[in-house]
Amino acid sequence: MIRPTSIALVHALVLIACRNTEEAAGGPSSSSGASGTSGSSGTSGSSGTSGSSGTSGSSGSSGAPTNPDDGPPAGNPDGACAVPAEAQPEDISKPKTVVGTGTAASCTSDAFVDAVAKGGVITFDCGPAPVTITLTRTAKIVNDTGPKIVIDGGGKVTLSGGRKVRILYQNTCDEAQKFTTSHCQDQDHPQLTVQNLTFVDGTSKGQDDKPEGGGAIFVRGGRFKIVRSRFFGNTCDDTGPDVGGAAVRTLSQSKGDPVFVVQSTFGGKMGLGNRGSNGVGLSSIGVSHTVINSVFGFNEAIGRGANPAKSGTPGGGSGGAIYNDGNTFTLSLCGTKIEDNHANEGGGAIFFVSNDRSGSLVIKDSVLRRNPNDGFSTQGFPGIFVLAKGDPQVSGSTIE
């Protein structure tokens, strides 16, 4: 049974929310405030629901490389929600760069990294069989090579970080990737789409001067869309109150437009989940998401102590599948399945905090179940911790 949040916890969350409202409005430095910003220690919160803990979700940082052939397909086969035009796959009929010359051996790390730096539409010619490209360095978007940058794996290409590097990086506020406007936090380019790809064993551990997250993909600025893609065994730092997105971390999207996540899978099978401190599938600050016909399963938020970190703890541990924080933003789920994720602190499935209570959580035609959290959740919504302008807007869905 879920217990009501105590008065003390509510008071603490309000104070934290006020603090983070200021941080979120504070310019470029706010990019590191994405995880757990309103998550108290959870010691007075709910224990969540019972069921599968998903503690075997990730293969971790040792052992054999993740085998994408073991993974489920991209997307929720039971999802039947309509996909808007702007969330559809991008046209790849005129690629700027084709990685490979018809053999698996020709599809190298350097060839892919160089193609990403050139921008435009990128496809692959790696032979008839599925191929895994293990990167030796992160592929980085150069901000003046768009406006559209599309990477399409044709359903046969897996990009691996080899548990050593982040796979893909876009940051309009990184001078090394070129400033293209005077307002890097709100510009309409680059417009990055990843489609028909699998991302495995990416990691952001040790990749930044200050831990940010985004083990497979880190995006700040411009626009971002994920279509028919899979994420297995990716990691970010294990602990920390402001670290998130073992799979994907997104910040500062243009005009507040949403990140579209369509027919994609994050984990979905024991041993293939993603793993990190907070927001293991999707992590963001001030960014809206529209998630359609997708799957999140066996992902683990393994930080301890929430945010701000309890005394004697390193912090983190909220949002087993999704972590959204900031002021005015919306998380919309439709036709999506979130099962068997786990959080050490709050929100085994979803941690959603709108600091000024202007944000909305919308759940339609979706299934959320067996997403326990060891710390706190919102009464009546198992696996979810939410502070918004009202209760989650739920229709045609199962939450248990």
Topology (SSEs and partners):
Blueprint: H1 7-24, E1 97-99, H2 109-118, E2 121-124, E3 131-134, E4 139-140, E5 148-160, E6 168-171, E7 191-200, E8 217-220, E9 223-227, E10 230-232, E11 248-251, E12 259-262, E13 265-267, E14 275-276, E15 282-285, E16 289-292, E17 295-297, E18 300-301, E19 322-326, E20 330-334, E21 337-339, E22 342-343, E23 350-354, E24 360-364, E25 367-369, E26 384-387, E27 393-395, E28 398-399
Parallel strand pairs: 1-2, 2-5, 3-5, 4-6, 5-7, 6-8, 7-9, 7-10, 8-11, 9-12, 10-13, 11-15, 12-16, 13-17, 14-18, 15-19, 16-20, 17-21, 18-22, 19-23, 20-24, 21-25, 23-26, 24-27, 25-28
Word description of this protein:
The structure is a single chain. The chain is mainly beta and 400 residues long. The chain has one domain (7-399): Pectate Lyase C-like (3 Solenoid), CATH 2.160.20. 7% of the residues lie in helices and 29% in strands. It has two helices and 28 strands. The protein has helices at residues 7-24, 109-118, and strands at 97-99, 121-124, 131-134, 139-140, 148-160, 168-171, 191-200, 217-220, 223-227, 230-232, 248-251, 259-262, 265-267, 275-276, 282-285, 289-292, 295-297, 300-301, 322-326, 330-334, 337-339, 342-343, 350-354, 360-364, 367-369, 384-387, 393-395, 398-399. The strands form three sheets. The protein has a 17-stranded parallel β-sheet that branches. Strands 4-6-8-11-15-19-23-26 form an eight-stranded parallel β-sheet. The longest helix is centred in the N-terminal third of the chain and has 18 residues, at 7-24. It is globular, with a radius of gyration of 19 Å.
